[in-house]
Each structure stands twice: as C-alpha cells, then as structure tokens.
Design brief:
By secondary structure, the protein is an alpha/beta fold. It folds into 2 domains: 2-236, 3-Layer(aba) Sandwich (Aspartate Aminotransferase, domain 2); 241-380, Aspartate Aminotransferase, domain 1. Helix content is 38%, strand content 13%. The model is unreliable at 331-382 (pLDDT under 50).
C-alpha cells in the first residue's frame, strides 16, 4: 500500500503498456524462474485485471462457438465454467470423487475428448476442494494434452498456499508443455490483494501477441497504481504468505477435526483455503442444510449446488478466515439440530454481508429474519 500511495503521489495515474509495466513483467519473469522453474521473457507476460480477465482472454482467443473447453476436475469454481460459456465454448465436465481426493480421472478424460476439444483447464490447488495434483498425475495429464494437441490453461493462483506433505508443480514446466500452456496467476491469494484486481498470464510470445487486441478492447490496460503495488509485493514481500499459511493450516486442522467429530467425510485439502465436505449424513440437501445452519448458528455458507448450477447437492463448502470465529462457530454448532457443520467457506464478518453476492444469501437472510441467532451474521462464505 505504501508503494501504491507513493506511485500516486508521483503521478502514476496514466495508461501503462497494454502488456503491463515492464518493471512488473520483469519481476514476474523472475518469480516464475525462481518458484516454478519456468523461463519467460517480459513480452511473454500480460498483466490483467485479476486472474479472471486472464482466463477470459485465453478462452476468447482459443474457443470458437461450439468448441469444447473442459475442466479436468469437478467440482470447480463456477467462474471457470462461466468464462468458457461466455467465450462461446461448451463446458465438458470431468467428475472427480472424494474417494480419490478429487484428483482428475484420467480414464474419464480420455473418453470424453473429441475433435472439438480445444482447451484443458487444470486448477491446482483446486477451488473449492483444495486438491493438489501430484507431479506424477500432472505428467499423465500433460501426455494427454500432447497426444490430443490440446492447449492447457493452468490456474495456479493458490500455488503458494500448499500444506506440508504436498507439492505444487506447474504443468508448464514439464517436457513439451511450455509451448502449449497458458499459466495464470495473481496476487489475491498469497499476497491478500484480492481488492486490487491484478493478475497475469504467461505464454509463448506469439500467443501473447495475439491477445493484445483483445486486451486493448476489453480494458486497454491494468490500473498503473495497482501494478506498482504488485511490483512491491514481488520485490519485497515474497515470503509474506508463509505467516498466513501457518494460520491457514491451523484453521484447516481445526475444521477437519470438527468435521470428524460430526461424522462427516471429506478429502483432506492439500492447499488453498477450502474444505469441501459431504453433508449427506445429515439427511438434508445443501440448501436446506445451509438455511438451517444460518438460522440456528448465525453461520452463512455456500451450498454446493452453486458449483453445479442445477439441483440439490449433498455438499457445501468451507474456509475459515479467523481462528476465533471457527472456535465460536464450533461452540454455536453444538446445539445445531442437524448436528453437523457441512463444508463451509466461513469468514467472520459480523453484520457485513453483501446483499448481492448471491441469490442464496439474500434468501437465507430473509428467511432468517426474526430468529434470535440471525440478529447478526457471525460468518459468511466468501
């Protein structure tokens, strides 16, 4: 923030290059070399308005109407699938299961590839499962991409939030994969800069050059002052995430212990800030469970069907942003009639729920009015 304020004071309020500030692109090149064993030039980096813009531009460039873009693990954030559709593509779901840790099923993937399949989206660590795809499994996905001449979009925004016992490897670093991979990353997770809306992509120069017109048309450039903040983050705060990671691991361990005590199952997340648990044992579907939870404990959660876009789901998902909030949640949930906690993405943010963040939230808050425990929402899913 100091760097951004200084940049504003010094007049950094004009357009930057469409690709982004050269100083930032050089820092990104250095980061990719040091952290991911990837070698790029500054003209192979494009700075974007968040990782979402980077993903959208990639799909716009690669997909024509009716082309298939498939997500090699499901569930996945609805952002990814929504951007495939917005670019005119067809989403191909590759279901993955809790028993296998939500790791992509190679056999299912190979049977669903068609001549219209153009893009494979790989998200590791996954959202909302926290699944970290092992190097060995990534190698097999890479071979599939090579065999079928697919472009890989590698979403690595959670790459630094990896828990002990797990390892992040960029699929672009594997043999013959750099030339067919678009690496997407950003500053929202590891640097807690979600409101700055700054991300980037790294890809071969001919592909990045082809994106320049799209980027110029979509947003012309990323805000210069935000880029200056990102330069400072990479140059002087590279290890700041380590403190957060220790705290996130404490929260993950507390939450999974609570889920164990409720008799609920889940795949232990290897990274990110999510736990995606199975509430099937409660006898409630995701929306009924979530509404009961907000009414009786003041905890607001995302029901799992927002990831599927249709019908009830036996899951909801959870991330705790405040350890005290998790503990108070545990106390309040002891009397919860369903005697379970679901897979909640929890953020202690008392009386501060955004009214438009989802249809479900509005419904939950409306139905919770008048209930003693809903006078102030103790936590909500972000």
């Amino acid at each position: 923030m100091t760097a951004a304020k200084r940049a504003l004071d010094e007049g950094a309020h004009h357009y930057s290059d469409v690709l982004g500030l050269l100083t930032l692109r050089k820092e990104i090149v250095r980061k990719l070399a040091q952290d991911n064993s990837l070698s790029y030039e500054p003209d192979e980096i494009m700075v974007c308005n968040g990782a979402q813009e980077a993903i959208f531009l990639t799909f716009l460039a690669l997909l024509e109407s009716g082309d298939e873009g498939y997500c090699c693990q499901r569930p996945v954030s609805p952002v990814t699938t929504g951007l495939v559709r917005a670019a005119g593509g067809v989403v191909v779901d590759i279901p993955s299961g809790e028993r296998d840790g939500f790791v992509p099923n190679l056999e299912k993937i190979s049977t669903l590839i068609t001549p219209r399949t153009k893009v494979m989206a790989v998200v590791t660590p996954g959202n909302p499962t926290g699944t970290v795809i092992s190097p060995a499994h990534l190698g097999k996905l890479a071979q599939l991409a090579i065999d079928h001449d697919l472009t890989v979009l590698s979403d690595e925004v959670n790459e630094l939030l990896i828990y002990p016992g797990f390892e992040h490897v960029s699929i672009a670093s594997l043999p013959k994969m750099r030339e067919r991979t678009v690496v997407v990353n950003g500053f929202s997770k590891a640097y807690a800069m979600s409101g700055w809306r700054i991300g980037y992509l790294a890809a071969p120069s001919d592909f990045v050059s082809a994106l320049i017109l799209l980027k110029h048309t979509a947003s012309l450039a990323t805000a210069t002052v935000m880029q200056e903040g990102a330069v400072a983050a990479l140059a002087s705060a590279r290890n700041s995430y380590k403190t957060m990671l220790i705290e996130y691991q404490l929260r993950r361990d507390l939450l999974t212990t609570m889920l164990d005590g409720c008799g609920l199952t889940y795949a232990t997340p290897g990274g990110a800030t999510y736990v995606y648990a199975n509430i099937d044992g409660t006898g409630l579907d995701d929306e009924a469970f979530s509404l009961a939870l907000v009414r009786e404990t003041g905890v607001l959660v995302y029901p799992g069907n927002i990831l599927r876009g249709r019908g009830p789901s036996p899951r909801s998902f959870f991330v705790a942003r405040d350890i005290c909030g998790v503990r108070s949640w545990r106390v309040s949930c002891r009397g919860f009639s369903a005697q379970t906690v679901g897979c909640v993405l929890v953020q202690t943010w008392r009386c501060s729920v955004r009214p438009s963040f989802s249809r479900f939230a509005s419904s939950a808050l409306e139905k919770g009015k008048g209930h003693d425990n809903c006078a102030g929402i103790d936590a909500y899913v972000a």
